[in-house]
Structures are given as C-alpha cells and as structure tokens.
C-alpha cells in the first residue's frame, strides 16, 4: 500500500510547485498508472515515495511505514526501477544482482532461487556473466527490474518502465506486473504509453502542473468528463481533454 498525504514540493525556494497538495492512496493488489504531460511532476512524486527527495509538506507511507520518520524500514519495502536505469556498468549482471541481494539482506537460499527464476523470466540468463556496460538499453532496463524484485518487496515502483523495451520484453514486464499485483502486492508506475495504461491498470491518476486532475478507474474517469466520453473512446482522448 502507498499513502501520499497532501504532499507538496518545490525545487527552488521561490519557484513553482513541482507537486502541489497531492493526496493519493494505492491499496495492495492494485496496478496503478501515473500519467501526465512532460513536467507534470510524476518523477518528482516517485522520488518522494522512494525517499530520494523530501517533501516540503505532507508525508508518505509505504506499507504503513513513514518514509520521513522511518526511511530504512520504508525503503526495505520498495523495489524501484528508475527512469532510464543505468546500473553499475563495471559490474557483471550477476555481480550487480548479488550486490543488490546483499543490500536487501536476501538469504543465500532465497537469492539462489530468485536470481535464476527472474533471469529466465526476463530472458537474461545467458548474459548474467557479461559486463553491464556491454548491455543494450533494454537489457539494462531488465537487469534493473530484476534487481528491484530481488527482495520480493510489497511495493514495486517503476518510472517509465516500457522505454527501451522491445515488444516481447514489454509484454514479459506487463505479465510480471500483473502477476505481482495478483499476489497482493502494489505496482505503481508512470508512463506516457496510454495504451499500456489502458490495458494494464486497475486505476489511474492524471497529474497536471503538480496537481491531480483525475483519479479512478478508466470508466470513472470517462464519467468524470460529464458523459462526453463513451465506452469506445480511448484514454488518449480523455488524457488530451484533461491535460
Ligand atoms: N532537479 C530539478 N531542479 C529543478 N527543477 C526540477 C528538477 N527536476 C524537475 N524539476 C521541475 O519540476 C517539474 C516536474 O518535473 P518532473 O520531472 O517531476 O515531471 P515529469 O512528470 O516526470 O515529466 P516527464 O514526463 O517529462 O518525465 C518540472 O517543471 C521540472 O522542470
């Protein structure tokens, strides 16, 4: 579960609010899509959920643990795939995954089970011995996804995860996100790929200039436009209307 309680953030003291009074709850077992035009505040929000940035106002809880008051415990509960993931390029894939397993104190038995399982699922088993610097962009993205899941976190956060993935890898990732939520865990991701959001998400939020302009199931968002959108109309129409 992710709870975002009236969170605001500005980068410069007198600058505009990058995130403005954001209030959002994402329960267990849900895939939640975070949409919005460039500069809307999606990455800033994700960085606050993961404890990279501190909110100026408000608080965030991950699985019931406050990221500001108990950051280590909250971070243990998160698997984070950053935007344009570029992990330690001088390590091999296996060295990186082993390092991440150490960071998250994953037992030897558990990592010996999870690394081959996840590597096979993402078709990375044959390149784990290669340096990450030799990986393609999509392969870097996949090793970052595997690393984020190494400790089976209850909350999985991904910033623009489909960028750089070929159609097959993208489909594998979507399957994994579904499997994850079906196991009662929370998946929160930002995307510009509206077709992915439309097909994958249980609920969506649309952010504009740091503020929520819509939140709910796709049907609820359609109704929120005063019935101007019918069932045939896509999220793209809705998105353009809202933003
Ligand atoms: N490090 C920073 N310093 C100053 N301003 C920043 C910084 N990072 C982001 N901003 C500003 O904060 C606002 C929100 O940016 P953010 O990156 O959160 O948007 P986004 O929705 O993730 O955009 P995109 O879809 O383009 O990735 C923008 O106005 C941006 O210029």
From TrEMBL:
Report the source organism: Melghirimyces algeriensis
The reply on keyword Transport is yes
Q: SMART domains this protein is in? A: AAA
Family annotation (PROSITE patterns):
ABC_TRANSPORTER_2 (PS50893)
List each copy of the ABC transporter domain by range: 2-234
Q: What keywords are assigned to this protein?
A: ATP-binding, Nucleotide-binding, Transport
The molecular function terms in GO held by this entry are: ATP binding; ATP hydrolysis activity
Q: Does Transport appear among the keywords?
A: yes
**Name of protein:** ABC-2 type transport system ATP-binding protein
Report the Pfam families cross-referenced here. Answer: ABC_tran
Task: Extract the InterPro entries matched here.
Answer: AAA+_ATPase, ABC_transporter-like_ATP-bd, ABC_Transporter_VariousFunc, P-loop_NTPase
Query: What does UniProt list as this organism's lineage?
Result: Bacteria, Bacillati, Bacillota, Bacilli, Bacillales
